[in-house]
Amino acid sequence: MNTPATVSWTHDGLEKAALWSSANDVPPPKAIVEVDDSLGADDAYRMATNGTGMLFTGDYHNARQLLSAIARRIPAGGKAKRTAAAPTTAERFYKYRQARTHRARILSMLLVPVGPGPAVALRRAPDVTEAWTNAFGQVAEPVVVSLQELLGAIGAQQWRTTGLHVAALDAKIHPHYGTFAPVRGEYLDLVARAELPGLGRAFDIGTGTGVLAAILATRGVTEVIGTDSQERAVACAQATFASLGLGERARAVQQDMFPDGRADVVVCNPPWLPGTPQTLLDYAVYDPKSAMLRAFLAGLPDHLAKDGQGWLVISDLAERLGLRTRAELLHWIEGAGLAVLGREDTVPSHGRAADTSDPFHVERSGEVTSLWKLGVK
C-alpha cells in the first residue's frame, strides 16, 4: 500500500501536520494556510486559483457558504482559441471537460480538519461518522480533506440510506460511495426483456452495484457471477444480492474482466465515453482509449458457452460527440471473431436528454442506447 501523504501548515507560529485524505486520489495542495470565517469569497477564489489550500477553522455552515461563493466565481469555460473553422463537437466536448476539471481543482482547495471519531473539527459540524467511514475508512489520527469530497460522501450516504428504486427489479437498491448509481432505467429494461439464450450461468463484467447481475438472477439464471476491479463495487453488489434475496444465485468477485469458465450470457455495460476518469464515479463514465470495451470484445469468445451470447450494453453518445465511430466498434467486433446476432435499441428518458440548456443537448436528445447480441463466428 502507498504511504499516505502528509500535509503541513503554520498555526500560531508553529508547524502542524496531518494526513491527507482523498478517495479520488487527488494530490494535496503544495501550500496550505489556515483561514476562518473572516475570509472573503474574492480572496478565497484568488487563493484557490493560485493553488493555495485553505484549511477552514471556523463555522461549518460558513465553510459551505464560502464554497458556494467560490463556485459562483468560476467562469463557465475558458476562452476559445480563434481558428479559421468552427470547433468540432469533439473539440467542444474536450474543452467542456477541461473546464469541469479546472472547476473541480479550484473547489478542492477549501479544506476541513477531521479528527478521530471521525468528527469534523468545526463549529456546528454534523455527525459524519457513517458517511465518512463508508467513504474513507477509519480515522486513527487527524486528517485533512477537501470540503467538496466530504460533501460528496455525505450526499452519497443519504442516497445509500434512501435507496434507488429500480423498475426492472421492482425493488430498491442502495448504491455505495464511489459506485455509479443506475439512474438511467432504459438500459436496465433492455437486459430485463432481451431473450435469454440459456439459464445455466451468466457473467456481469464490471458489475458496479450488481444491478444487471440481479436482473439476470431474477429472470431465472441459475448462477450469476459479477466481476469488478473495485473493492467498493464488489461490496455494494454483494449487499444488493443479499437485500434482494439472491445470495444463492448471484455473487460478486474482485476480478479484472472475466472470471474463469464460460457462460450462456456474458453482459457488459462498459463506460460509454472514451476519456480519462478524474473521480471514482468517472470510472463508470469514461473509458481511456475504449480499453475496457476492447478488452471485453477481445476476451468474449473464450468465455462463451456453446451457443452463448455476449450482451454489450452501450450508448451511441460517443459517436454523436465524435469521440468514437461506429466503424471502429464494428471493426473491433469483427477483429475479435464475433458476429452481431441482433441489436435492441431504446432512447433515453432521463432529464438531461430534454435539457435545452445543456451545451450538448442536440447530441443527448438524439442518443440511442443499444443491447448488441454477439456470438462467436
UniProtKB/TrEMBL annotation:
CDD domains linked: AdoMet_MTases (cd02440)
Molecular function terms, GO-annotated: methyltransferase activity
UniProt cross-references to Gene3D superfamilies, sorted A to Z: Vaccinia Virus protein VP39
Keyword terms, alphabetized: Methyltransferase, Transferase
SUPFAM superfamilies the record matches: S-adenosyl-L-methionine-dependent methyltransferases
Domain of life: Bacteria
Keyword Methyltransferase: yes
InterPro entries found in the cross-reference section: DNA_methylase_N6_adenine_CS, N5-glutamine_MTase, SAM-dependent_MTases_sf, Small_mtfrase_dom
GO BP term, example: methylation
Location of the Methyltransferase small domain: 200-315
Identification of the protein by name: SAM-dependent methyltransferase
Organism: Paeniglutamicibacter sulfureus
